[in-house]
Amino acid sequence: MTINQNQKAFLGAARELLGEKGLTCDEDDLIPWTTDWRGRYSGSAIALASPASTDEVAALVKLCADYSIPIVPQGGNSGMAGGATPDDSGTSILLSLRRMNAILSLDAEAGQCVCQAGVILQTLHEAAEKLDQRFPLTLGGKGSATIGGLVSTNAGGTQVLRHGTMRSQVLGLEAVLADGSIFNGLTALKKDNRGFDLKQLLIGSEGTIGIVTAVNLRLLPAASGRATAWIGLPSITGARTLLRYVERAMGESLEGFEVVPDHCLESVLDHLADARPPLAQGHKWNALIECMSADSDSAALREKLEGVLAGAMEAGLLEDAVIASNEYQSETFWNLRDSISAAERALGPAMQHDISVPVEQMPEFILAAIPQIENTFPGTRGVAFGHLGDGNVHFHVLAPQDAVPGEWEESTGKQISSHVYDLVTQWGGSISAEHGIGQMKVGDFGRLGDPVALGMIRSVKAALDPKGLMNPGKLVPLIEASESG
Amino acid sequence: MTINQNQKAFLGAARELLGEKGLTCDEDDLIPWTTDWRGRYSGSAIALASPASTDEVAALVKLCADYSIPIVPQGGNSGMAGGATPDDSGTSILLSLRRMNAILSLDAEAGQCVCQAGVILQTLHEAAEKLDQRFPLTLGGKGSATIGGLVSTNAGGTQVLRHGTMRSQVLGLEAVLADGSIFNGLTALKKDNRGFDLKQLLIGSEGTIGIVTAVNLRLLPAASGRATAWIGLPSITGARTLLRYVERAMGESLEGFEVVPDHCLESVLDHLADARPPLAQGHKWNALIECMSADSDSAALREKLEGVLAGAMEAGLLEDAVIASNEYQSETFWNLRDSISAAERALGPAMQHDISVPVEQMPEFILAAIPQIENTFPGTRGVAFGHLGDGNVHFHVLAPQDAVPGEWEESTGKQISSHVYDLVTQWGGSISAEHGIGQMKVGDFGRLGDPVALGMIRSVKAALDPKGLMNPGKLVPLIEASESG
Prior knowledge:
By secondary structure, chain A is an alpha+beta fold. The first copy, chain A, has 18 helices and 18 strands. The first copy, chain A, has helices at residues 5-22, 27-30, 54-67, 121-130, 147-152, 160-163, 166-169, 198-202, 236-250, 262-271, 298-314, 327-338, 340-345, 362-376, 407-426, 442-448, 451-464, 481-484, and strands at residues 23-24, 47-49, 71-74, 93-96, 103-107, 112-116, 133-134, 170-177, 182-185, 210-218, 220-221, 225-233, 254-261, 285-293, 320-323, 350-356, 381-387, 392-398. Chain A is globular and about 75 Å long. Chains A, B: GO terms for molecular function: catalytic activity; FAD binding. Chains A, B: InterPro entries: FAD-bd_oxidored_4_C, FAD-bd_PCMH, FAD-bd_PCMH-like_sf, FAD-bd_PCMH_sub1, FAD-bd_PCMH_sub2, FAD-linked_Oxase-like_C, FAD-oxidored/transferase_4, Oxid_FAD_bind_N.
């Protein structure tokens, strides 16, 4: 890569600021981080910066502003929308927050934990557990995802039904803004009405207006009871009825309500060597129900759930049900749910869509959208599974058996995605429920987003990042030539 | 008032748009609304507009943009910071949302209610109750406060400990922006990560970047059980210890934890004709505890709370306690709490401050701040009462007995407020916990706010309201001459 005079001067200043440990231009050091973990997006960068403190981040961002160097912030590089991957111009600096991985304080009494951005989610879980607390957000990538990335993308996961997304966990936040100034909002104030809630603006902004450097997160008392159930259902509309029934009966203890169609479960059972079906017979739809409580023990919670499910069965709301008799069996049920994507990959190419519609409309959406896609794109198979309780499913479309991997995704696959996003938008839903916009969906967002909302986003972006150096090409759709006139 | 040519042309166009019912320039019609309900702020306006629909609001705001007419939106005129009162230039139009008072839908199954901005809080409470639901936010002004105003100021109240402020209740939001475009975010999506969360930006923005016209609010199942307790305590630090104890023991059912010092209770007992002290003897501090449950009935909840308080007494965490034996007695306890301000008014002038610090630090703050104020301003008396569970108290300073009402507030009173806000800021707290900035605190916010946060607020305001016509003079501190150079 050729480096121009301006970049050379910037790199000199950055090296002076960050030292040898904090800056590298070595290709071998850069390569693991310039491609996203799924290998879908690839780019290049003039250097990888790894500051050790918020002050170093601030000074580096100030340098970037002075030298007009674009910045791509990165946490665990486990995002789903290419939001942490630089473009291929090779003009950006990759700013890793991974060195800033200290838990600064953990106060069980107050239920608060202050973390630097680079703390890995699983590390936080373990630290909280040691103090008989828990951090109520989890997801598949917990072993690599960082707190900063999770906040910047407002991550979801499997406990959102009860505890909300990352936004609901953030009590305070510190970020470095485009001019290198530090927004210091770490103090947790339960009530604070001093003007616009800037913290909320920064959460989910994917590094486009500020770089999250630390957060104050809420903790809950550790759960003492857990009950997990696998349910056989005749239909997806029946799943919604059961959801409402269980919500009323289990109240606050209901933490997750996931749905899995029969063929997804079959693929998983084929894929996992020693997996067994939870129920004696197959059912058109399955629901996975998770309850947690800090008040009851597992035996009491299971008994309560058993009574509720027995009532549901009597009312004709389900076909069959089994409650996990111990933690191991709970994990077995969740392993079936969590293996869907891996099992699907073994079947060939697929287009994956993380979408939401209002909870009440999700069954009808699934029933309408799957045949519409399958009819429009013959040979494909539509699959919807996931967080019914949040109105959020992963809507996957599997390629026909004769599709050529790599080629299909770029041709028919792209048309399918556009079609899915069109449908979701018609249903008043979101083309990104929990993964963010990143670079993956920025085009579709520009095409389908409400022009008024897009206008606000562009205005706020221009106001807070006037030079356009903060994670360029992500989240904020460009104005098309026809519009800008 | 003299009207210039531009204003005359605007009023003609506005009258054509809104009709006779929707626009008045009659002084008698305007007077009730150009002064805030406490009579602290007064201004004038060229007209009072009362549009009947979101489209009419949008068209009116567009007209205002075309004719450069400042807009002051207003709901129930029950705000605490003068945010809905025009300045005295007489150039603004007062935009009342009160005619838009329809509950558009109320879905008990989904737990959602779509309201126009002018719906009065108490009306919403009653509508929800009819369907065995409840809206979990309440406050003293519920008989006049409108949903639009409550959202625009992110109102709090007495159930924030458990249910959060207004921000936590809003599932979707519609607003008219400065250019007259309509931001349509009414659809409730539990997960939606399409860029910045603009809804969050509009909540609490006090009409300075958009006018809330409708919201989609969450409802909860009606509470079937209620238990209220009045507690006698030796100290405010003891109140915090009891709070943590009760939080752990009562879990999700704890909805309110209010504190009242002895002399506040005495004033209330003097002020209310037939009030009786809840406990046999006086205590230095009192706590009012409220528990609600949708699962247990009142008898069961009272029994549980009784056991918890008996344990606390054994552990030496309280001096005395009484649990309300019925709804009537619960209301009696709350009436004592809610009469503090009225009782205080009978004692003479006082400066009132709605402030917050981190929950854990509130006792120490109170213990430090009261003597500091009383020593600096001899003859005054510092009083702190309210939402200890939210780290938010109403910090009032009563005038010396010889103070001249009206005069004292403008001289010493103002100095006292500055001093209180200085202290709060030193403690990392907020000069507005739940009342907003409005015009009342805009100067102190400019003086004490974090310059980085103020810079962001000014940039966002300028980006979304480039002509500066949206509720000018509220929330956004002007840049001082010394800064702007």
